[in-house]
Amino acid sequence: MSTEATHRPVAVLIGFMGAGKSTVGRILARRLGVDFIDTDSELVRRERRPIPEIFTDDGPQRFREIERDVVLDVLESHHGVVALGGGAVMTPAVADALAGHRVVYLRISADDGFERVRGSDRPLIAGDDPHERYRELLAERDDTYRRVGTMTVDAAAGAPGVVADAILELLAAAPTPERATTT
Ligand SMILES: Nc1ncnc2c1ncn2[C@@H]1O[C@H](COP(=O)(O)OP(=O)(O)O)[C@@H](O)[C@H]1O
Ligand SMILES: O=C(O)C1=C[C@@H](OP(=O)(O)O)[C@@H](O)[C@H](O)C1
Ligand SMILES: [Mg+2]
């Protein structure tokens, strides 16, 4: 496929916690024969501390600033598949930087998505009623995911490989969007 030659990164995966961005992104990259980067993993590598610790010690606002810097760097430098953390696109600078990229929204229902992440260490669902919190946050964000995404995939269509294949089909059919900057 010619996508990696014409567009960098090849694709950026967005969507809520549990949609499968990290899992499907890795499979998609392997199938395309390109590198994969998860901006949460990159953030943890740079900070040398886990995400829950950043939230606890520095607060959510500082997490978003660090996340923004990582995402902007990755969008500039990475040529393969990129998976973002679920809240990254809520930062306006990140949403702006995605203009002109191939942005795949992995869409998941509140029930299906919550089942996948319940009991995980994700700090935003660490409170008293994690299912309700999950539902609320997803409802708050869905409009932004739709606006920023240039294509939408059903994240519960099947196993991660099935979702990756659905993305491959969309990428093959999608016209190459204009890059945000041209030389
Ligand atoms: N299509 C899928 N079907 C079933 N389980 C999935 C699917 N995609 C991801 N998962 C599982 O859901 C959990 C969250 O996946 P992850 O890739 O971390 O999501 P995200 O990065 O969007 O938060 C993991 O346990 C993963 O194995
Ligand atoms: O939705 C969010 O705000 C978050 C999602 C997480 O990533 P995943 O979407 O990969 O779970 C991680 O970045 C952090 O816990 C915050
Ligand atoms: Mg992830």
Automatic annotation (TrEMBL):
Binding site for ATP: 18-23, 122
Cofactor binding annotation: Binds 1 Mg(2+) ion per subunit.
Major subcellular site: cytoplasm
Protein's cellular compartments: Cytoplasm
EC number: 2.7.1.71
Positions of Mg(2+) binding: 22
Enzyme class: transferase
Molecular function terms from GO: ATP binding; magnesium ion binding; shikimate kinase activity
PANTHER family listed in its UniProt record: SHIKIMATE KINASE, SHIKIMATE KINASE 1, CHLOROPLASTIC
Assembly behavior: Monomer.
Protein name stated in the entry: Shikimate kinase
GN (gene name): aroK
